Amino acid sequence: MFHRSTVADPASAGAHRAGSAAPAATGCDARDRSAPGDNPLARGERSAHHGAMRSSLGVRAPLSIVALVTACAPGHPEAPAAAAASVDRAGMDPSVRPGDDFYAYANGGWIKTHEIPPDRASYGTGAIVQELTAKRTAELIGAAVRDAPAGSEARKVGDYYATYLDEAAIAARGAAPLAPALHRIAAIADRRALATALGEALRADVDVLNNTNLDTPNLFGLWVAADLSDPAHNTAFLLQGGLGLPDRDYYLDGSPRMAEIRDRYQAHVAAMLGLAGLSDDAARAARVVALEQAIATAHVPRVDTEDVQKGNNHWTRGELVDRAPGLDWPAFLAAAGLDHQPRFVIWQPSALVGLAALVASQPLDAWKDWLAYHAIERHADVLPRPFDDEVFAFYGKVLTGATQQRERWKRAVDATSAALGEAVGKLYVTRYFPASEKARAEQMVKNEVAAFARRIDNLAWMAPATKARAKAKLAALRVGVGYPDTWRDYRGLEVVRGDAYGNADRAERFDYRRNLDKLARPVDRGEWVMDPQLVNAVNLPAMNALNFPAAILQPPFFDPDRPLVMDYGAAGSVIGHEISHGFDDQGAMFDEAGRLDNWWTPEDLAHFKASAAALARQYDGYHPFPDLAVNGALTSSENIADVAGLAAAYDAYRIAFGGNEAPSIAGLSGDQQFFLSFTQNWRRKAREPALRRQVLTDGHAPSEYRGDTVRNHDAWYAAFHVEPGQALYLAPDRRVRVW
Predict the structure, then answer these.
(1) Of 587, 643, 586, which Cα lies nearest the Cα of 614?
(2) How do residues 132-184 score in pLDDT, each as one tens digit?
(3) Cα separation of 60 and 217, whole Å?
(4) Model-level pTM?
(5) If we measure between CA atoms, which residue out of 1, 30, 509 comes closest to residue 222?
(6) Which of 572, 580, 575, 573 is nearest to 739 (CA)?
(7) Taking the CB of the first residue and of the last residue of the chain, which one, N or C, has fewer CB atoms within 10 A?
(8) Rounded to whole angstroms, how far apart are CA atoms 247 and 268?
(9) How far apart are CA 194 and CA 188, in angstroms?
(10) Using one digit for the tens of pLDDT, what is the confidence trace for 600-645?
């Protein structure tokens, strides 16, 4: 899913786990219905054997990215001098034939000459834009610290940021902020009290379909969103959780590599418990990891979790009690503020049943140790430096391969955006997103929607009845560009200058209460799930809506000073990707109102599924490492959106040029500029641990394979004279078109 976002790239190297601030500018996933950025987005990160090229189509060492340098007259794609600078010639490798390895042809020069910064797990175009956006955002927040009047929203932003940066004040408080939570946990004497503690820890920290985030360190995660069977009303989704490692495979995989990670994780748990002053930390850590091993065994695999048909299970409160014994559900729901919620969507029923049973069967002391560890970990970034350093030592160095913690000011930007995202976004768009760029992006969206509609009309295999429903869905699509029409209200969030830990905790609880309040209100299709300063984009299937934040609509993705055709290859492919998510293997199951409803004829659905399966087999053949292949089923939604989105962007570019090819510039035809812009958009390097994590857990394929999406498009073959016998060549009947 494009997170249904476009990008899924955990950019910052030691981003803390759930509970800590997520990097403000990250994505794809992740599922993306999102766009090209680096995203600790949770998920895995692209990994790279620096400078290595793929030796064959199937097995290829990770490659990767850069910003496109541009300079041409605004609105004049035909300006020759400017366009010569638009394609990054120095970043290409002309020694590689486009038909053998288009990703290396477009990006090989950059890959050979650029290294991943020590504080990042991955690096590329998205990361470069994120760094610039973070710097600009920090400057805007700094001005708020100095100039915003007391009591104003901007001052609240400034105080949160300044307090996060005040490490001396954080150090002076020591571990004292942890004391109340640890005392409550120590006092747990029975299973009812345990259920209450588990309910109090519940947070709105997962998202099934939008910013697809399927992980929470709490036993369960809550997502409040449109009911897939009744999209006019919000409901409460409960998802599996409870793990400190990225996925169940990290616990269940018997390989030496994973066994070493588990050993280092147990050492990390012991270190965190010891820093908090708990005795017998080694024995406690062993109990925590053993309990998480049992939790992982109950978990549903990620491929099944991303199947909406398997996840849309409605249970009443009574059914929770009857079908998932072991957990005191009345106590849990009361503590979570959900005691008046009549029904829930249980996304992974077998996992919920298994986790509830573990609450009764596993030793009470093990659960208390587990709660204590996760309480310590939750806001470690605003505890004294030894806590923060220990988190980075494991989650940064071990899991992503980064060697250096990100600078504190960058993490302060992320933390402030996590707490007050739209308030920060207001500052950002006022300064960096002019009305002219909003209008230009909206015109591009119109062209892309028109192109997709034409593609539906031209599908020879699709019945008229199915075409009519597909076009009705496209016509009802709601597209937000830059920022929301209505800004979020933060008046209820208390920010105290000098109380970094309290601010983080209050912001998390404020967001949780905001989500609970939505349960009593109808769905707001104008609500955004991404902040304007995020380098990403997203499709919201249950609202039949798209968000394109302002930060993705800047160079090199979207640039008024370069040939228009290149914007269509870059930002246009992102827009096409997001539109296409509404028609991927999961999105196509939603109708024009956002209801999970099969609107296909049986024959058309069978044809669509066959095309999706063919694309999955294509991606199954990609091997980032000799011992690890891309999972075509896991990445299916994103791959479909990449293929269909690129096709829509190409057609939209031709619409923009009156049906003609864009002018040639500096020896590059219009089509060549389009495809090079697309694949240079995906430049990215990642460290090996990060790439392995991505392949195992992320719904997005590694960037080099996304860049090779071109091999399914006829126009690419003509543009670069790709012939049979070249590695990327596919016979016309083997090119997967889907839409």
Answers:
(1) 643
(2) 999 999 999 999 989 999 999 999 999 999 999 999 999 999 999 999 999 99
(3) 34
(4) 0.87
(5) 509
(6) 580
(7) C
(8) 17
(9) 6
(10) 999 999 999 999 999 999 999 999 999 999 999 999 999 999 999 9
